[in-house]
Specification:
Helices cover about 45% and strands about 20% of the residues. The chain has about 350 residues and is α+β, with helices and mostly antiparallel strands. A four-stranded antiparallel β-sheet has the order 8-9-10-11. Strand 10 (about 325-340) and strand 11 form a beta hairpin. The radius of gyration is 33 Å and the shape is elongated. The N and C termini lie far apart (about 70 Å).
Length: about 350
């Protein structure tokens, strides 16, 4: 900070209440220093900084500092860089997961890194938002609007987008929005003001990473599927596993209903090692079973332990029993556990309650 003499138009040290040249009273002004070249250097908030310097200023110099004011340019430059970093990171990790079929491990690592970055940038973002509100003449208490469900964050965003007050206010001097040219950049040891082209390039980059992120999500999920049946399931047990396991369950019931029990038995696990006596008992029991139609199969659990992949379906079934000239239909709910054996999905068991992972 410096003090300024209106009479002789000289800048004085902060401790000089009176001008050492003319003796007139001086006023405090937001001036950092006077460069040897004679340029008046103001605090960085008065300049149109480059994207790099904005990021370093917000995350470094002003990490937890809510004093002063921040321009719209500073606010949106930081937000743009933050979104590119976070979404770009997610796009890379999700894209690698879709290409390499690594399961949930890379996604978990991405979630951990994003969580750490979000926590690190939380305080600088709050401090920047407070300074942005100061520039519009509003106090930090305005941030509490964020706690109002639905409309609160939208109102707060609108306030953060308002143009700053052109005059001094209780939070500091009016921002001057000084452009940093190459000469001034060499004096300040900073980068020149970023051009409009740089902004357009970064916005385009943000669009690209959003599209890449969406494409990686789409690549990991089968058609017409949403979480958890889509990309999440495929990231753990592999692309196409949902369709293949569902087809095995459906084909099993179709074979049973058509009384093709030998074919139905091929969809049961460990058929090659099954005791012939046990197989015969299973065949006899199935002959007494009612017709079962599959109403819906929803994925309720997916797991992968080494090479063992397991999907548990929450199955809504409809049993139909014919007797004494009466057709009786009864809804039935079962949990159907399906595992992959030798590249084929086979039924592990039917359960009335959610099975444990070790079953």
């Amino acid at each position: 900070m410096k003090r300024y003499c209106d009479a002789c138009r000289h800048y004085c040290d902060e401790a000089a209440m009176f001008c050492p040249t003319c003796g007139q009273y001086t006023v405090v002004t937001e001036v950092e220093r006077i460069a040897p070249e004679g340029d008046v250097i103001y605090p960085l908030s008065h300049y149109q900084l480059s994207y790099k310097d904005t990021f370093l200023y917000v995350m470094g110099t002003k990490f937890m500092d809510t004093d002063g004011r921040a321009s719209r340019r500073e606010f949106f430059q930081f937000l743009l860089l933050w979104h590119i970093a976070i979404i770009g990171l997610l796009a890379v990790f999700y894209g690698l997961t879709a290409i390499l079929h690594t399961g949930p491990y890379l996604i978990g690592l991405a979630g951990l890194i994003v969580a750490i970055l979000s926590l690190v940038s939380l305080m600088p973002l709050i401090a920047l938002s407070v300074r942005r509100l100061h520039d519009t003449g509003k106090s930090s208490a305005t941030l509490l609007l964020f706690l109002i469900p639905f409309v609160g964050p939208l109102i707060l965003l609108g306030l953060l987008c308002l143009k700053g007050q052109p005059q001094d206010n209780q939070y500091g001097s009016a921002l001057q929005h000084i452009v940093i040219d190459k000469r001034l950049a060499s004096i300040m040891k900073a980068s020149p003001t970023s051009s409009a082209l740089t902004t357009r390039v970064l916005v385009g980059l943000l669009v690209v990473v959003i599209c890449a992120f969406g494409a990686s999500l789409r690549a990991m999920g089968p058609a017409n599927e949403v979480f958890p049946d889509g990309w999440f399931t495929n990231s753990i047990v592999g692309a196409g596993s949902v369709e293949a396991s569902r087809a095995s369950v459906q084909n099993y019931f179709d074979a049973v209903n058509n009384k093709d029990y030998d074919k139905a038995f091929t969809y049961i696990i460990s058929q090659a090692s099954t005791n012939p006596v046990e197989k015969q008992k299973w065949l006899e029991s199935m002959k007494q079973a009612p017709k079962v139609d599959v109403v819906s199969l929803g994925v309720t659990r997916v797991s992968r332990t080494g090479d063992l992949k397991r999907i548990v379906f929450d199955a809504n079934l409809q049993t139909t029993k014919v007797g004494a000239g009466v057709v009786e239909s009864t809804p039935m709910k079962r949990y159907i556990s399906v595992i992959e054996e030798n590249g084929a999905w086979r039924i592990e068991g039917f359960y009335k309650t959610m099975p444990d992972d070790d079953k």
